[in-house]
Amino acid sequence: MRAIVCNTFGPPSSLTLEEVTLPEPGPKEVVVTVKASGVNFPDTLIIQGLYQFKPELPFTPGSDVSGIVKSVGEAVDPVRPGDEVFGFVLNGAFAEEVIVPANACFLKPPQMEHAIAASFMMAYGTSYHALKDRGQLKKGETLLVLGASGGVGLAAVALGKLMGATVIAAASTDDKLALCAEYGADVLINYTKEDLKSAIKKNTDGKGVDVVYDPVGGDYSEAAIRGMAWGGRYLIVGFAAGNIPKIALNLPLLKGCALVGVFWGSFAMKSPGQNQKNTMDLMKWYADGRIRPHIHQRYSLKEVPVALDDMMHRRVKGKAVIEMEEQ
Predict the structure, then answer these.
(1) What is the CA angle 183-122-245, rounded to 5?
(2) Taking the CA of residue 5 as centre, how many other CA atoms within 13 Å lie in the half-sphere pointing to its CB?
(3) What totals of helices (H) and strands (E) does the chain contain, helices first?
(4) How far apart are CA 55 and CA 38, in angstroms?
(5) Across-strand partners of 323?
(6) Does 327 score more than 70 pLDDT?
(7) pLDDT tens digits for range 277-288
(8) Can you tell me the distance from the alpha carbon of 94 to that of 35, in angstroms, rounded to the nearest whole number?
């Protein structure tokens, strides 16, 4: 089969499209014929050796996947060969076939196209786990989303609104903020034009925000913490800006706030039952038309380096998707 291969850590241009051995499922594993794969910002870090874990070289990147079950190993239930499914893997999704752990493989709703299904797990799974389990976001609270037009950010905007919060979306361009408004943001902050701390204060009547969702890191993290309300929760989701901020610990002390780590991938592996419950909530909301991933662009398998480069350089709003060509 064909697969994108990372032979050495480096930029997207160093990836190659190669013929590799077909996978065989082990116990509690499913082989999926891939129809679509989602592109996520962590993919750009993993191929550079900059993520929380480093796969053994060579490897195929890609985490979000949707497709058709080809074969199953022992002790797999309920999916069977021929079922249309979606799920997630640590890596391997940018290929024509991939092994998916059975507890991370879900039956795809018939009305959901593969490209949408492949846009779902990382973005909405991360954001729902962050807001519900880690941030304990309550109806009537104020949520600030940094990097709000990205895949996880836009999901957080939509879910925050659905959960009854007043949502403040912060992003770097007016064009990106316009998309956030379409997904339910109540207040828009362009942090290249406005001072973030001052804008938060102005838009909350000086109270501050109850929950901050931060997949960006970098220069805006401290300003967001300074704009928090007493007893707030600051959700550390990722560092898309490229550098990990160093926060003075007197700030959470003075605010009485909590700095909370969010690592959905580990949560999904360590608590598959709770993750499955979250996924069922998301599937119901999708079926009801209350949430919908935004697809920025569709790329072919050979265009994975282009898609990752677009992701690295902030050209993607919502989700980029890899679609397999029909053979």
Answers:
(1) 85
(2) 12
(3) 11, 15
(4) 19
(5) 36
(6) no
(7) 999 999 999 999
(8) 10
